[in-house]
Amino acid sequence: MSLLTLVSLLLFSTSATVLASPCVAFDINWNLLAFDLDGKDYNAGTQDTWTGSGKATDITTSGRPPFDGSNTTCYLSQYTNAIYVMGADSQEPASVYIYDAGAKSWSTQAVTAGSFDPSSFDAILDHDTNVFYALSNGNLFSLDMGLLKAANSTPLAWVNAEQAPYPANYQPVMALAQNHIHFLDVPGVAAGSADIFVIHYSYFQPVPQPFPLPNGSAIPATYGQATSFFQESGVQQEFAFIPQDSSAVYVVNVETNTTQMLAGPTTKDPKATYFAGITSLVQLDSAGGVSFLPYQEGNVSVNSAASWSTVSLLAAVAPPSSSPNNSTSPSGSSGGNSTGSGSSGNTGGAPSSSTVHWSLLAILAAAAIVASL
Ligand SMILES: *[C@@H]1O[C@H](CO)[C@@H](O)[C@H](O)[C@H]1NC(C)=O
Ligand SMILES: *[C@@H]1O[C@H](CO)[C@@H](O)[C@H](O)[C@H]1NC(C)=O
Ligand SMILES: *[C@@H]1O[C@H](CO)[C@@H](O)[C@H](O)[C@H]1NC(C)=O
Ligand SMILES: *[C@@H]1O[C@H](CO)[C@@H](O)[C@H](O)[C@H]1NC(C)=O
Ligand SMILES: *[C@@H]1O[C@H](CO)[C@@H](O)[C@H](O)[C@H]1NC(C)=O
Ligand SMILES: *[C@@H]1O[C@H](CO)[C@@H](O)[C@H](O)[C@H]1NC(C)=O
Ligand SMILES: *[C@@H]1O[C@H](CO)[C@@H](O)[C@H](O)[C@H]1NC(C)=O
Fold it and tell me: How far is the CA of 120 from the centre of ligand 1 (A)?
């Protein structure tokens, strides 16, 4: 085996496992927060400034998670102005890191997972109760966050509520609106319809609810990402669904039970994640690029004409590392240009600086092995 082969093998195996996974969220003043873009956290301010020539504010501070997980997810607790971050610490996969957006401080909430699998779930944070509901390996779990904006020293626990009435192979896509959890892409359910769990009654509605487009066509029955639009206060009434092919954005209104079809993201990235505020849907792609679609609830003509723009304030401080869908050779501000490192494994983000360190270690290790032959 040649030195080069050995080095590239080692580079591949190490860099693939240490890719960081950033996430975006809003605070209750609708400032866009981006966590772990090129290893730092930023506040990009409100929507009116995102496309300007300024720079996002660095809000990186102590107590933050290592962001070394592969599937980090962020949730806004609107009552507490806290962001709950899951999957951001590979050593403590069940812990929920709490960012108090008012105090700008972090704390770590210990969580007992029980039979909840932190490596396989989808979850929503219920607006009114501040309780997480998650589907993991076919079971519905809940995690009551109380009104925490800083961690409690007593661990919290995921409670296994009940088995969900969905096929075992269901890869969950969950969306919250009006205290109902909408399960999209359930096998056997017609395109455009969702199965519903009514939170306040702990009740799986037996009949799926259709959400047709105005012309009678339907959201495709396919896997994708979902995120709820917030209101200034009160429970969400609409959610966005973005299929994996990024071909369109579907906005479902659960008051009228109808769907609007809007422009798909410019960056077609099956590994992108999304977070909606009140007046925008934000995409974080797997190279660390952040863009948004402006949105006005109830204004079909404006929404139909809306298009995606880059959040230049974030790109100015943390340029995306490479094209998301082709990230076989990360380059740019953080990834370095080490050969052969792939990010194909997971919901990666822009590789953080740890990639470079591991790559160097790998080269040293390989050199040592070869030298000893
Ligand atoms: C990340 O998500 C992928 C896809 O759902 C899953 O296969 C993998 O196990 C997850 N990894 C971790 C560390 O949670
Ligand atoms: C219905 O409307 C959507 C969105 O405008 C469009 O993509 C689709 O082709 C239409 N379907 C039919 C059957 O007209
Ligand atoms: C919308 O769907 C919900 C849930 O199935 C149902 O309770 C409600 O009556 C429907 N509303 C309309 C206007 O059809
Ligand atoms: C939609 O927005 C446009 C532009 O702001 C405004 O002129 C129009 O009145 C709005 N329509 C509705 C139904 O809100
Ligand atoms: C990459 O992007 C192209 C064009 O946008 C798309 O057709 C293709 O499916 C994507 N490939 C992967 C692996 O996501
Ligand atoms: C991915 O790489 C191929 C070959 O280098 C290139 O043709 C294609 O445009 C790239 N796709 C994207 C989405 O950047
Ligand atoms: C990356 O590539 C550039 C141009 O080829 C080179 O100057 C630079 O030293 C490389 N950086 C690393 C970390 O290899």
Answer: 6
CATH topology of domain 24-320: Neuraminidase (2.120.10)
How far is the C-alpha of 94 from the C-alpha of 109, rounded, in Å?
9
268 within 8 A of 285, measured Cβ to Cβ: no
> Do 118 and 94 touch, CB atoms closer than 8 A?
yes
| CA dist., res. 325 & res. 285, Å (int) | 9
Q: Helix, strand or coil for residue 219?
A: coil
Distance from the CA of 253 to the center of ligand 3, in angstroms?
A: 10
Q: Which atom of ligand 2 is nearest to the CA of 261?
A: 4
Q: pLDDT 10s per residue in the chain (373 long)?
A: 444 444 444 444 333 334 579 999 999 999 999 999 999 999 999 999 999 999 999 999 999 999 999 999 999 999 999 999 999 999 999 999 999 999 999 999 999 999 999 999 999 999 999 999 999 999 999 999 999 999 999 999 999 989 999 999 999 999 999 999 999 999 999 999 999 999 999 999 999 999 999 999 999 999 999 999 999 999 999 999 999 999 999 999 999 999 999 999 999 999 999 999 999 999 999 999 999 999 999 999 999 999 999 999 999 999 998 666 554 433 333 322 222 222 222 233 333 433 333 444 444 444 555 455 5
Could you tell me the residue ranges of all domains in the chain? 1-18+323-373, 24-320
Cα of 361 from ligand 4 centre, angstroms: 57
